[in-house]
Amino acid sequence: xxxxxxxxxxxxxxxxxxxxxxxxxxxxxxxxxxxxxxxxxxxxxxxxxxxxxxxxxxxxxxxxxxxxxxxxxxxxxxxxxxxxxxxxxxxxxxxxxxxxxxxxxxxxxxxxxxxxxxxxxxxxxxxxxxxxxxxxxxxxxxxxxxxxxxxxxxxxxxxxxxxxxxxxxxxxxxxxxxxxxxxxxxxxxxxxxxxxxxxxxxxxxxxxxxxxxxxxxxxxxxxxxxxxxxxxxxxxxxxxxxxxxxxxxxxxxxxxxxxxxxxxxxxxxxxxxxxxxxxxxxxxxxxxxxxxxxxxxxxxxxxxxxxxxxxxxxxxxxxxxxxxxxxxxxxxxxxxxxxxxxxxxxxxxxxxxxxxxxxxxxxxxxxxxxxxxxxxxxxxxxxxxxxxxxxxxxxxxxxxxxxxxxxxxxxxxxxxxxxxxxxxxxxxxxxxxxxxxxxxxxxxxxxxxxxxxxxxxxxxxxxxxxxxx
Length: 469
Description:
The protein is an alpha+beta fold. The chain contains nine helices and six strands. A hairpin with a 4-residue loop joins strand 3 and strand 4. The longest helix has 68 residues.
């Protein structure tokens, strides 16, 4: 009779075990154009070329910073990715999420326990010792898919944590590159400003001589001195600004700021050429988008968990125990007892708690959907903005670089005329000051080009090749 009951229960469990309440996850629609444009007039032609986005953050991004071909940047990147504390936190969060997934999977298995007890009692004339040993096992079949939904939720959260770790890695590597180029830009600027100080000092010496000869009044001397003092103040600003930038790189690399050294080059490294018409599929590697998509999957599974709370829970349990005054009596039937059977539990009234939990889960899911779709739209904007900026800066750099060449040619002509005796040395120095002003403008534009190149790489999820940096 008992055997038939257990067969019936087992059959019911197998029959119901295949269902999981709650909605199955369907990725919401989020469309991206076929290719990035960077130019409005080109984008208007391709507005019909849209397709559904599919996160592909598993693709290898590679060491994207190597496209700049700078050995010191390579060293800093490797140092940061090995030691950065934000990455260590993200790694621990990923490991914690993996542990949560393993914990959720344990719900598929029964719980088995063992207990042992010894008690002594004594009355006025008699005393006794009681020995007991018991084993218990219980299992709650996943009739409504609550365990499966929990595993689904924790699996999505584990993947989201993995994506977040990749996002931190990308962010740290981009910050290192930005910091390195800012430091290099400031060092190159310092060289120009040092030259300006030398020129203005020479100008001041000349004006002193002219004042003594009576060809210039004292107001002219004061004007040149103010110009020199301004140049010296700018040079001092360059020097103290170098330290915070170096310290920021030290923090990214998890190194003591006071002892950290950066070996800068004397010129800009290679600026990579960005191919035209980048495919929008690159955007799908962005780990922050993958993180948002996995958050949707986790929230969707949370709805299933909330729905499962409305259904009764079935628990199968079995207990066996031995109890006797002497160890040797345990094997005798009168000292052994057991029990087994199913139990069914259902909440009849909870004051609307389960209804509220379901409504909260559904609202949370809608929130993740809106967040995901907003993340995709924002990512598109970032890439297009960076592409437009890079194109504009390239055109601007062509002009500023041409201005530097013209100013240098003018300075060389002035030098030749000075050597021929047709111009004064004062004219040479003034020409050099004009040339340095153009060099500073050109340097600022060039530095912005490197900065925007890194921003574009970060916006694309790491470089513009689907398989490498």
